[in-house]
Structure formats: structure tokens, C-alpha cells
Amino acid sequence: MNVVRMNTAHATEEGIRTIVKNVRAVSPHIGIMIDTKGPEVRTTGVKEPI
Length: 50
Hints:
alpha+beta, elongated
């Protein structure tokens, strides 16, 4: 594994810190890529009103 990608739209700050800590415990040479787009509303069309 060369890099870990973390999607911050689905994680807490505490969760991100835990992942970074765990990755660093395995190897200091694994890159960490953080998607900082943030939370977003995900919608889809439906046949019947909700």
C-alpha cells in the first residue's frame, strides 16, 4: 500500500486522527491523502413522494 485516502465527508475529526495514528503505527512511509470537500447532501429521484 502506498497511500491511504480518507473521505472527510463521512468521518469525524476523532475518526480521522485514529486512522492517521493507525497508519503511522504500520509504516511512516505510507502517504495520507485527505479529501477535504466536506459534507454534502446526496439526493436521488423517487417514483413516489416520500
